Amino acid sequence: MEMARVGEAAAQAGGADCPGAVVDLEQPTDLSALIFDGATDLLSEPEAYRIRQCEACVVHFFDTSRKGSRRWCSMNISGNKLKVAAYQRRKRDSEPAR
Question: How far apart are CA 98 and CA 83, in angstroms?
């Protein structure tokens, strides 16, 4: 038997005491129900326009930045990759041709 943490809506629907509760997963469909419930919560957010796709990979993320201008899912992975590429492009463009 597997155990999993559930979100607020899943906890309420499943009768769990509080958000982040741990529930038993007896069937594989129990896990998919939790995933779909979480996706439904995310997509029904009043600020659903802040859900974006990362510029460097296939991941979608919820932009929590103050200005709403975040472009990548993770600075450590995707953000660094894009910044290094931009730096190399600027460096290559500024060098005189040989």
Answer: 26
65/43 Cα distance (integer angstroms): 18
Q: How many folded domains does the chain comprise?
A: 2
Residues 88 and 55 in one domain: yes
Q: What is the pLDDT of residues 57-69, one digit of tens each?
A: 999 888 989 998 9
Domain of 67, in residue numbers? 48-98
Say what the pTM is.
0.52
Q: H-type helices in 19-79, by residue range?
A: 28-43
Please indicate, yes or no, whether residues 39 and 59 belong to a single structural domain of this protein: no
Q: Is the dihedral angle over the CA atoms 54, 57, 60, 65 positive or is it negative? A: negative
What's the length of the chain? 98
